[in-house]
UniProtKB/TrEMBL annotation:
One of its GO terms (molecular function) is serine-type endopeptidase activity. GO terms for biological process: proteolysis. It comes from Occultella aeris. Transmembrane segments: none annotated. Signal peptide: none annotated. It comes from the Bacteria. Keywords: Hydrolase, Protease, Serine protease. The keyword Protease applies. This is Prolyl endopeptidase. Residues 474-676 form the Peptidase S9 prolyl oligopeptidase catalytic domain. InterPro entries: AB_hydrolase_fold, Pept_S9A_N, Peptidase_S9_cat, Peptidase_S9A, Prolyl_oligopep/macrocyclase. The keyword DNA-binding does not apply. Residues 4-394 form the Peptidase S9A N-terminal domain.
């Protein structure tokens, strides 16, 4: 490709000419696909699953109530509602509506999408006041509005943060930390806040006093208040880049005390304890701790200069720490052993050590997730247990007691005759890479089964077995095979697994994915003509590289909300924040390797490529829709088989409502079904 980009004009997100181009493309192959009876039937079933009133209503404990955000057929934008634990335990809880987003949108003529709420704790107004974040069309940028949970109305003349990327944190009933767009020069190159201020009730936002100002090239600056009784304190968080951050205690007179751990580490402070999860090896006082380890020390001792750290967890070649969750008086470790979960409980003693015990009654299934019910005041946890073929269950458990099952996902598809397996394949450099495989027990192994390979491989994110009614009904039940690849770049084996595919080593993630694809063919499960690959965001970059570097391996490719132009990515929306992952394309030495995984530049108009589906969102203000637009445009100009669909709203998730989500998911599955069978 020449230095002149003929499709650069498509980077104007909401220009009329550009949107005309989008609408025209939407009305072509994607519209034909959506016009079939098979599409209508699958979309209806998918929407029925997404709208099902039998889904698990996830709840958050706030005071005496348990809050849930809910969408169904009658509430497209959703309800924020609450109930009691006693009622939640019943088959049909009694819900009290706190905020109806559909009614709010109708009243205000907006298209608000729920972004969450933060509730004031630790004040005379405890559990009464909330800040609600709302986004237009699902973008990352949102507004913050004060809400009264007793009257269930927005507070007249209350706190209001105008639309921007950023957020707030309660300090007390009359004070917030606020980090947002304060005007020219106050946002980072990544498009996030660079300044955090203290904002007092009754004063304009412009009068808020600066607490901390980051450097011009920082990624994200924020502050938050810890309201734990007896341990109230304030923190400033400075994110310089991904995997490079600093945490400060904010004292009297806004004095900053840095928590002096490596910038790549993840410190966490709970009550009297500081825990440190390492991404890199650390030698603070003649003792070397390995990457992936979890360390602990009393905060007071650490601030006084002690580095006598306790090792709570050390990784192995096959295991890593998935999460560490505090309750009021325990720390629950969630460990991954070859991508399978195991729980341990650590309990601080009066002597400052930790006693280790097994988690009583933890489910032995594919994936277990743990969340504190109320870490300030309680030792209860939520337990989610799930795998590919068993509906997700939710239990509540007091540490040391057997879990109490509360809710279960309905059976959304027939698992009869399906089996789930784990396999390992050797990548190009000899690395052992796991993947999961779901197929019919009576599979012929004759290379004809339509097979979908899914992956991500970035940002230390792990992919684990999860029940999906949509995947089951739209793909597995129709005879399709599904493979989930745990390639390098992810977090399945801790930070080392991620770091093995950073920057100049990015190719390893793509080699891993290709190795899994080849293994599926060699096992006789499928063949290239019947093998599809799918991924979104960083996974869209992954599938873009499968398309351009390994076109002979696949019969169809689905690329969702992707990065594709790696020369321009750092200049588009939040792209600058990902240079720690991919490198800086403006540095000639780094562009030398980045260009080799930039699908937009690897495309060869004379080469043969499998059919490709691109999906993105106009309202995605994280990964610029220009990536998908430009790649589709150059492929169409070269006469390639391209199906393109851009949702006019939806944000980085691609969809703002269940109806939009059903449409997008059905597009992918019907595209794959038509091209691979």
């Amino acid at each position: 490709m020449s230095h002149e980009d003929p499709y650069a004009w498509l980077e104007d997100v909401e220009g009329e000419q550009q949107l005309d181009w989008v609408r025209a493309l939407n009305s072509e192959q994607a519209a034909v696909l959506a016009g079939t009876p098979e599409f209508a039937a699958m979309k209806a079933r998918t929407l029925g699953i997404l709208d099902s009133e039998e889904k698990i209503p996830d709840v958050s404990k706030i005071g005496d109530f348990y809050y849930n955000f809910w969408r169904d057929a009658g509430h497209e934008r959703g309800l924020w509602r609450r109930t009691t634990l006693a009622s939640y335990r019943t088959a049909e809880p009694e819900w009290e509506t706190v905020l109806d987003l559909d009614a709010l949108n109708e009243a205000e003529g907006e298209n608000w999408v729920w972004h969450g709420a933060s509730v004031l704790r630790g004040d005379e107004e405890e559990y009464r006041l909330a800040i609600i974040d709302l986004s237009r069309g699902g973008a990352d940028a949102d507004v913050s509005r004060e809400f009264d949970l007793q009257t269930r109305t927005f507070v007249e003349g209350g706190f209001f943060r105008p639309e921007s990327k950023g957020g707030t944190s309660w300090i007390d009933a009359d004070t917030l930390f606020v980090f947002t767009d304060f005007g020219e020069g106050t946002m980072t190159p990544s498009g996030y806040p660079r300044i955090v201020k203290r904002w007092r009730r009754g004063t304009p936002l412009e009068a808020a006093e600066t607490v901390y100002e980051g450097a011009e090239q920082d990624m994200y600056i924020a502050a938050y208040h810890d309201s734990t009784p007896g341990f109230e304190r304030d923190f400033v968080s400075r994110s310089i880049a991904f995997y490079n951050s600093e945490l400060y205690l904010l004292g009297a007179g806004d004095e900053l005390t840095r928590i002096d751990v490596p910038n790549s580490a993840e410190p966490d402070i709970k009550r009297e304890w500081l825990t440190v999860e390492l991404r890199e090896e650390w030698t603070p006082a003649d003792v070397t701790y390995p990457a992936g380890a979890l360390l602990a020390i009393r905060l007071e001792e650490f601030l006084a200069g002690s580095r006598d750290l306790q090792v709570l967890y050390t990784p192995t070649e096959t295991s890593s720490l998935a999460s560490a969750t505090w309750t009021r008086s325990h720390l629950v470790l969630n460990l991954l052993e070859d991508v399978k979960n195991r729980l341990e409980v650590l309990t601080p003693t009066a002597h400052g050590t930790f006693e280790r015990s097994a988690f009583v009654g933890a489910a032995q299934v594919g994936t277990v997730a743990v969340g504190a019910v109320d870490s300030r005041l309680s030792d209860a946890v939520w337990l989610y247990a799930t795998d590919f073929l068993s509906p997700t269950t939710l239990s509540i458990a007091e540490i040391g007691s057997a879990p109490e099952p509360l809710k279960s996902m309905p059976v959304f598809f027939d698992p009869t005759g399906l089996v789930a397996e784990q396999h390992f394949v050797i990548s190009d450099d000899g690395t052992r890479v796991p993947y999961f495989l779901i197929h019919r027990e009576d599979l012929a192994f004759d290379g004809t089964a339509p097979t979908l390979l899914y992956g991500y491989g970035g940002f230390e994110i792990s992919l684990t077995p999860t029940y999906s009614g949509v995947l089951g009904s739209a793909w597995l039940e129709q005879g399709g095979v599904y493979a989930l690849a745990n390639i390098r770049g992810g977090g399945e084996y801790g930070p080392r697994w991620h770091q093995l595919a950073l920057k100049e080593n990015r190719h390893r993630a793509y080699e891993d994915m290709a190795a899994v694809a080849k293994d599926l063919v060699e096992r006789g499960i499928t063949s290239s003509a019947h093998l599809g690959v799918q991924g979104g965001s960083n996974g869209g970059l992954l599938t873009g590289n499968m398309l351009t570097q390994y076109p002979d391996l696949f019969g169809a490719v689905v690329i969702q909300v992707p990065l594709l132009d790696m020369k321009r990515y750092s200049h588009l929306l939040a792209g600058a924040s990902w240079m720690a992952e991919y490198g800086d394309p403006d540095d000639p030495a780094q562009w030398e390797y980045i260009q080799h995984f930039s699908p937009y530049h690897l495309f060869d108009a004379d080469a043969d490529y499998p059919p490709v589906l691109f999906t993105t969102s106009t309202r995605d203000d994280r990964v610029h829709p220009g990536h998908a637009r430009k790649m589709a445009a150059q492929m169409i100009a070269a006469g390639k088989d391209v199906t393109y669909y851009e949702n006019i709203e939806g944000g980085h998730g691609g969809a703002a409502t269940n109806g939009q989500q059903a449409h997008m998911q059905t597009l992918a599955y019907r595209f794959l079904a038509e091209r691979l069978t």
